[in-house]
Amino acid sequence: MKRKTLLCLSLVAMMMTGCADQMFVEDVSLSLILGLDLDQDDHLLVYMSSPVFNKEAKVKEEKVEVKAVSIRDSRELFDQTVMALTSGSKTQLLLVGKKLLKRKNWIDYIDPFYRDPKNTVTTRVVAVDGPVSDVIFFRPKDKPRLPLYLANLVDTAYRRNVTIKTTLQEFHEQTTEKGITASITEMKKDHKIMLTGTALLDEQSKYKLSITPNENKLLRILQHKTKGDFPFTISVPMESNGHDHWISFSTPSIKTKTRVRYDNHFIFNTDVKMRVIITERLFPFNVRRDAAKLQKSIEKKMQADFERLIKKTQTTGIDPFGFGIYARAYTYPEWKKVQNQWGKAFSKADVNVKVHVTIGGMGTIK
Amino acid sequence: MKKYAFNEITVMQYIFLINGAQVGTGVLSLPRILAEKAGTDGWIAIIIGWLCSVSASIFLVKAAAKYPEDTLYEILIRFFGKILGKVLISVYMVYFAFSAWTILVNACLYIKAWFLPKTPEYIVLLLFSIPTFVIARNGLRVLGRYSELSFYMVIWIPLFLLIPLKDGNWLHFLPLLKEGWRPVLSAVPTTVTSFLGFEVAFFFYPFLQKKQHAVLGITIANTLTILFYVFVTFVCYAYFSPDGIIEFNQPVLNLLKLIEFRFLERFDMVLLAVYLIVVSTAWIPYVYLAPFCFSQLLGKQDHSNYVIILLLIIIGMVFWLDPTWNDSEGWQKMVVKGGLGLAFVAPPFLWVYSWIYEKFRRRVSH
């Protein structure tokens, strides 16, 4: 009998827990997108987009802009205007204006994401070329509400390596790790929203360089992150007549191997082994007979592309590839001396990329 | 006739009791503390710590095995006489009570910070104490069953840590012994203390059914602990960069925060709630042992009233003191100091003492 009453009591207690302090979804403004930017006078602007759970509201999305001193401060200001209590626990995207990205120590602003256990860290970090307000207040008719659209856009583009996807947690890794500099998704709004590639930041996390979607694929390969699709469309040099020879291929397998040695400066030798399947060819060519020739010209073209990208980063003194991690692992004594100015040391390094292409298939026609 | 016929524990229960007492909330911050001291070589220090704790454990079992039917209370009285023996056992009692206090406070702080920020501490502790009382008022056999059952219930937790591992980078570990042995050795005291908890075996030994397996049992318990520690540390070091990990207070929870399924976010909260079972197997033996010592001091059979008193004192103290994270860390340091004495110094000393004592007594009896 005693046991039964105890059981009933505990059951009731378990059921009752939800009654005392409940939180209706209508009372929460989930800031699904948070935007950070600077205005003309270099004041911090914080933007928020949150869904509205209400039948009477015509537009199911609230978008707010406030001038604040920090993200946490902006929350009080949001609460003054939005319908419900602002919560950062479901933030999907963090949009950062390029103007802010160029400012020193801007990453101090994202401290609450790491400090407050209620906030999530799987938020995608996105650089916006131009004012953030353009993106936030954009209301496309043919798309779902903006947070869903943008999150999906970044995720799918990342799968094809059009751009990179960096979550706040990964961003933290990249900014604290001395052997790599951060790289984040880049977005632009002209008349519609476009992913323009990847923004590369330097050791102080200031904006340095933008790369195109094509270069982003090369970046991913050099980072040894060869998951997802890597479709290429390139113009291969052929000795015959002058016009371009366009060829497209998918790469079912890419293997990258990096070795490092030190001889007054760092020397990196990276081998990229690719197996390609031709998906498109706009010029006559006998692949059955001259496969080796085609392989060679693809190799040559890719190698030149790799070298151009590496040169570009070296002149700006950044290492988005993470060669520094290899330098630390294999040449620790030398790395230790330069670890705090790795960008400078990397700009003096020799990086030799060798591409090996194997044509795995020419497709179903000749 | 056996003294504790109704409370005998099997070797398995013995193993899981010790293992349960060892693994608590410490492991959540262990990777960071080790990284601060020894960088990515911290895991080597765990192995050294394990060697220390296994040897101390063997001494402990050997010392206890001299008088297999006696609890530590009776052994101490036999060795040092009634007054000194009682004083020494009170030292153990205070240590156990204080350990129970720190573990409970620490667990409560975690729960409060992660998912019950508005609930007062004493209510959280009140909720902890009800199941604790239900178990700890019984004999050792119930405790053993609880520890064994909860081990099987939570054995899947490490599997989820494998999910972030796919983004890990093994290059973080290279080169081994980055700065030589010195930093590794400086981290050993930390790892040694993370094995604290096996001192409860002193009190459990007389209850063990098959005493010939005592050494094996305590070694397996220590080994289970080291496997868990090394595994967690490995995953953390592979995922977080060596420079990034030291910024997170509890890197393990940050790691779990990254796990997301389509239907479930914030896995750290789910796991922390389940992990409470693991932590409970750490505080319950202490909550049992402190009143157990007290009842022996008073020469009483039943200890369950003292369990209530202890839990009430703890709840009352929490109510008055309102412990902060810094307080809790300070108390943990005190427990560790006491634990080092009682778990690592006392057993070899007792073993040597018992040897001298036996010799001396034999000479007297001749």
Task: Briefly summarize what is shown.
By secondary structure, chain A is of the alpha/beta class.
Record keyword descriptors for this entry.
heterodimer; A: 366 residues; alpha/beta; GMP Synthetase, Chain A, domain 3; 2 domains; eight-stranded mixed β-sheet; four-stranded mixed β-sheet; 12 helices; 35% helix; globular; B: 366 residues; mainly alpha; Amino acid/polyamine transporter I
Would you tell me the structural class of the helices and strands of chain A?
alpha/beta
- Over the alpha carbons, how many angstroms does the gyration radius of chain A reach? 25 Å
Examine the coordinates and then state which fold CATH places here, giving the name of the CATH topology of chain B: Amino acid/polyamine transporter I
How many domains of chain B? The number is 1
The CATH architecture of chain B can be given as: Up-down Bundle
Kindly state the percentage of residues in helix of chain B: over 70%
Q: Spell out the helices and strands of chain B N to C.
A: HHHHHHHHHHHHHH
Oligomeric status: heterodimer
